[in-house]
Amino acid sequence: MNDIIKQLYQSQQGKTYNQLNELFETNYAKILKLIPNIKKIKNDCIAQQHQTKPLYLFLEERTKYTGVYTLTHRFDNINKPDIRFKIYFDAKLVETLSICNDYKINQKHQFLNNCSDLEQKWELNYFLEKWFDYCLNQQYVF
């Protein structure tokens, strides 16, 4: 069984820098839909939605051209998915820095060493894209 999984894993097409950059651009467009005034936010804030948990946006760092934020839900004393990302306002890009303080998804996956840094970066940013889709579908309002 492991050999079959390994073959499937290795047969996957590697990601390119262009694909990763397109994901950065897509995520920038989605964050602007979710939080249209994110460029003006100077403090942490909470998005309300009546049927689910509030969505928290924490501002960690803000400069003229960039911002570092964490977007998460709070469950008792746990923040999940705790997605930390950087926005490049001048380049119109969003890059995922970590998810739940991890810099890789599936860190214990047996074939992780076969993935390039670019592929691992793509996985993090793909997760962020899907998270933005979820938040937009839930109609959170900041």
Strand content: 25-35%
Taking pLDDT < 50 over at least 5 consecutive residues as the criterion, the unreliable ranges are 102-112
Shape: globular
The whole-number mean of residue pLDDT values reads 82
Q: Describe the largest sheet.
A: 5 strands, antiparallel
Structural class: alpha+beta
Strand order of the biggest β-sheet: 1-2-3-4-5
Protein name: DUF1249 domain-containing protein
Organism: hydrothermal vent metagenome
InterPro entries: DUF1249
Pfam families: DUF1249
Written overview of the protein:
- With about 140 residues, the chain is of the alpha+beta class.
- The chain has a domain of about 100 residues.
- It contains three helices and five strands.
- Strands 1-2-3-4-5 form a five-stranded antiparallel beta sheet, with helices on one face.
- Helix 2 packs parallel to helix 3.
- The radius of gyration is 16 Å and the shape is globular.
- About 10% of the residues have low confidence.
Brief digest:
By secondary structure, the chain is α+β, with helices and mostly antiparallel strands.
Summarize the SSE layout with pairings.
Blueprint: H1 2-11, H2 17-34, E1 45-47, E2 55-62, E3 66-75, E4 78-88, E5 93-99, H3 117-137
Antiparallel strand pairs: 1-2, 2-3, 3-4, 4-5
Task: Please give a handful of descriptors for the protein shown.
single chain, 142 residues, alpha+beta, 27% strand, DUF1249 domain-containing protein, DUF1249
